[in-house]
């Protein structure tokens, strides 16, 4: 890579319609995401409440731990549940999420297979409360919620953790979607920069194309060896509708919606991200910019969800 | 539209910044670069006399009035218990000292600081002299004057050549009879020049005597030299009364215009005035600053130079931080560098100013490295966030003290300056680094650590640049340009350099 090539490379990225970090912030987040609505999505507890009120399916909330004192009552709180997830209400980038998949002699089995004691969990929650995972280190609260029993459709292509579907929704219209598959490297997390595999999804059909893993195109899951491309995502229209409705929920024009597929409950909305990452473009081999600009040119976006879905499918 | 707004705003800011700067450079003579020095002449007139008993004393000294080719940087009068007034009648300027009673030898000083300034060589339009009436010469001289005038007139074409011819005639090495008579009873050079002016007046030529002072470094008991100025072609033209050469010599100032005595003392005897001259180089900035104050410039009233020196030094550093901040903006938004904390590298760079770069980096790495090791141990204790942060802070400060002590004992003075590091920043760096280490692995943590250090070193290099330091302090309005650049980068939507790398797979597939 030579210095004189930089301008040429920038121009080619522009031609491909790749959205850069600066442009994402200046032209979309600053323009379409009003600051006052950020707390709605930054606080997962509020998002969950809003979603429930709007009839959007979310993982059930078991308990909220707000103050240090409640940490002592943890065994009682957790007694009824064998499986659960502990996460910070203000977490970002999948940090601070602890998944328990079973109990064994009073100890908790984490998704990684390791056993954790009561005090490990308590320490983790204390860290969450003191704001270790929250933006700006502000005091936080910890949520205990339903562990998604994910749909077996992804069994062959995920290694522990929960595969989820990230969709960029602009002005209420889904623009680009990808499937994020945890790997051994990502430690069950579904974030691409932590080593998860990103797989592009065709918006119109819900069928996966090839994926990227650490900037490289992959056809097979690096841990399980399952084929990544050509997977048909179930309930695709339902997923699209769910993401589109999240726009009305948060009042934010440019969001990333994370959805998981539960075996029984179908698509569940996990969280809304007001500053969604850009890797989705690599997974789809498709720049965001042309689609965003086309939607920007439309004066009034239809209010009916079905019409928005149709619009989304016509973008591809 | 928003972009246009930002661009217009940035343009206005740049325009204001540049025009203020331009004004200060061209009109006030503030130098753009710090190394420029200029000669400053200090001229001192020392007046000495013996007062008469029980008489009020009045001393009048003619002093220069905006000497051509120089600017007055400063002037002061040393006159213990005398009352002082200055007068300016448009042609000459004088200082008047007065006191009711004085005993013993009296010494008064007038001190003048001059800087060469070629732009003032062109004096303002001279006031045309009043028409003279032909002076009455003594009976004895009348015919001689007429003879020399007639002779000079026959050998000349205009006023100046006439003067020259006359002067050459009067100063001929072997004076003829006429000239000898004219030279009679002119003991001093001054009287002789006055006589010449008189003779010129007889030929209807407006001439006057001036007193000039030759600026020679180290001159001790110098005196003024009488000179002649002739009004021709609507301006006063100086001429050497001895050689008839036009102009005044180099490094000379006109001290006084007119035939009055330069020093006039009422109530004193044995008056004496002596001039001494010294030359020394001074920084242009100071000269310009003093000069601007002399000129009563409003802008310089609000210059940072009017602050106490200590506060000035604070601002010398503070004004550099926006430049460092701009570097961070550039490194993060255009290059795409990751650093710990947005402005942490600037604060580290400020500390580097004291510790110097190499030692700064060594000490920083040492403290952060040790802090990190201890932080990992604390991780094992499972402490809550704020107590843990406080512990890390305490440990960082103790580490700094230990490093200072050890290096001091070892005789490495630089090491002592570790105390200048912002400890809270160090603490947060240790904490953030350990979190990144845990979450994203040692590689990422070290990368960000080195990134921060690199940006800090760059910021240090920029902030310790002498020219820049001088510029932001003397021309703080230049920071408006930095502000404009920040505004423009605030709407920069192009790719970051690192994104070209990040999205390279998108490029490859084509």
Can you walk me through this structure?
- The complex is a heterodimer of chains A (316) and B (510).
- By secondary structure, chain A is of the alpha+beta class.
- Chain A has helices at 5-16, 21-32, 38-42, 44-53, 74-78, 118-129, 236-250, 280-284, 289-297, 305-315; strands spanning 61-65, 84-88, 98-104, 107-110, 115-116, 142-145, 164-170, 173-181, 197-201, 208-213, 216-218, 254-262, 266-273.
- Chain A has two domains: 5-55 and 150-315, D-amino Acid Aminotransferase, Chain A, domain 1 (2-Layer Sandwich); 61-145, Dna Ligase, domain 1, CATH 3.30.1490.
- In chain A, the strands form two sheets. Chain A has a seven-stranded antiparallel sheet. Chain A has a six-stranded antiparallel sheet with strand order 1-6-2-3-4-5, sandwiched between helices.
- Chain B has 510 residues and is of the alpha+beta class.
- Chain B has three domains: 36-129 and 208-296, no CATH class; 134-205, no CATH class; 313-474, no CATH class.
- Chain B contains 18 helices and twelve strands.
- In chain B, the strands form three sheets. Chain B has a four-stranded antiparallel sheet. In chain B, strands 4-5-2-11 form a four-stranded antiparallel sheet, with no helix packed on it.
- In chain B, a hairpin with a 4-residue loop joins β4 (83-88) and β5 (93-99).
- The longest helix of chain B has 41 residues, at 423-463.
- At the A-B interface, α1, α2 and α6 of A face α14, α17 and α18 of B.
């Amino acid at each position: 890579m030579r210095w004189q090539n930089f301008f040429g490379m920038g121009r080619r990225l522009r031609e491909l319609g790749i959205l850069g970090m600066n442009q994402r912030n200046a032209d979309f987040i600053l323009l379409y995401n009003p600051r006052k609505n950020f707390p709605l999505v930054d606080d997962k507890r509020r998002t969950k409440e809003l979603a429930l009120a709007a009839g959007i399916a979310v993982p059930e909330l078991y308990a909220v731990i707000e103050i240090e004192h409640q940490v002592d009552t943890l065994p009682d709180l957790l007694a009824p549940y064998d499986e659960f997830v502990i996460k910070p209400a203000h977490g970002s980038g999948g940090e601070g999420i602890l998944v328990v998949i079973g109990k064994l002699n009073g100890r908790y089995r984490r998704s990684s297979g390791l056993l954790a004691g009561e005090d490990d969990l308590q320490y983790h929650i204390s860290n969450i409360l003191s704001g270790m995972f929250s933006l700006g280190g502000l005091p936080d609260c910890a949520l205990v919620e339903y562990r998604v029993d994910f749909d077996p459709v992804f069994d062959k292509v995920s290694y522990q953790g929960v595969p989820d579907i990230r969709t960029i929704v602009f002005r209420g219209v889904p623009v680009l979607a990808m499937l994020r598959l945890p790997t051994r490297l990502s430690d069950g997390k579904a974030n691409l920069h932590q080593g998860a595999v990103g797989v592009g999804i065709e918006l119109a059909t819900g069928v996966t194309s090839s994926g990227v893993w650490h900037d490289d195109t992959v056809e097979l899951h690096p841990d399980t060896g399952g084929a990544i491309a050509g997977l048909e995502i179930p309930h695709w229209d339902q997923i699209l509708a769910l993401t589109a409705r999240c726009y009305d929920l948060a009042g934010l024009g440019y969001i990333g919606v994370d959805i998981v597929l539960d075996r029984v409950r179908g698509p569940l909305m996990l969280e809304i991200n007001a500053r969604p990452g850009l890797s989705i473009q690599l997974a789809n081999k498709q720049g965001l910019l042309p689609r965003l600009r086309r939607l920007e040119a439309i004066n009034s976006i239809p209010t009916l969800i079905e019409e928005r879905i149709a619009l989304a499918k016509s973008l591809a | 539209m928003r972009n246009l707004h930002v661009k217009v705003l940035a343009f206005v800011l740049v325009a204001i910044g540049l025009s203020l700067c331009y004004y200060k450079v061209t009109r006030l003579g503030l130098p753009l670069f710090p190394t420029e020095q200029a000669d400053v002449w200090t001229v001192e007139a020392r007046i000495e006399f013996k007062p008469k008993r029980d008489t009020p004393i009045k001393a009048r000294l003619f002093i220069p009035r905006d000497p051509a080719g120089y600017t007055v940087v400063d002037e002061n009068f040393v006159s213990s218990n005398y009352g002082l007034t200055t007068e300016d009648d448009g042609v000459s300027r004088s200082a008047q000292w007065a006191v009711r009673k004085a005993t013993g030898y009296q010494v008064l000083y007038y001190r003048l600081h001059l800087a060469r300034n070629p732009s003032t060589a062109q004096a303002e339009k001279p006031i045309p002299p009043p028409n003279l009436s032909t002076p009455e010469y003594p009976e004895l001289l009348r015919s001689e004057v007429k003879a020399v005038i007639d002779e000079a007139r026959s050998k000349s074409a205009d006023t100046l050549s006439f003067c020259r011819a006359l002067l050459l005639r009067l100063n001929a090495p072997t004076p003829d009879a006429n000239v000898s008579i004219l030279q009679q009873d002119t003991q001093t050079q001054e009287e002789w020049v006055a006589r010449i002016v008189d003779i010129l007046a007889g030929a209807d030529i407006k001439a006057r005597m001036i007193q000039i002072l030759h600026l020679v470094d180290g001159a001790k008991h110098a005196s003024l030299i009488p000179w002649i100025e002739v009004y021709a072609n609507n301006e006063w033209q100086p001429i050497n009364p001895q050689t008839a050469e036009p102009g005044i010599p180099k490094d000379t100032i006109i001290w006084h215009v007119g035939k009055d005595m330069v020093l006039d003392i009422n109530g004193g005897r044995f008056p004496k005035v002596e001039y001494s001259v010294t030359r020394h180089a001074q920084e242009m900035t100071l000269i310009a600053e003093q000069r601007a104050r002399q000129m009563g410039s409003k802008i310089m009233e609000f210059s940072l130079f009017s602050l106490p020196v200590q506060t000035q030094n604070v601002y010398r550093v503070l004004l550099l931080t926006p430049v460092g901040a701009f570097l961070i903006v550039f490194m993060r938004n255009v290059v795409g560098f990751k650093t710990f904390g947005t402005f942490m590298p600037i604060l580290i760079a400020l500390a580097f100013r004291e510790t110097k770069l190499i030692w700064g980096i060594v000490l920083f790495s040492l403290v952060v490295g040790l802090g990190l090791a201890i932080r990992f141990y604390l991780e094992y204790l499972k402490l809550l966030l704020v107590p843990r942060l406080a512990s890390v802070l305490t440990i960082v400060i103790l580490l700094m003290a230990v490093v200072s002590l050890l290096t001091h004992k070892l005789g490495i003075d630089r090491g002592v300056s570790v105390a200048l590091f912002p400890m809270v920043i160090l603490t947060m760096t240790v904490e953030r680094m350990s979190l990144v280490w845990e979450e994203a692995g040692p590689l990422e943590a070290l990368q960000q650590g080195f990134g921060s250090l690199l940006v800090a070193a760059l910021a240090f290099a920029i902030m310790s640049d002498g020219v820049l330091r001088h510029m932001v302090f003397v021309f703080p309005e230049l920071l408006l340009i930095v502000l404009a650049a920040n505004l423009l980068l605030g709407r920069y939507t192009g790719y970051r350099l690192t994104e070209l790398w990040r999205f390279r797979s998108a490029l490859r597939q084509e």
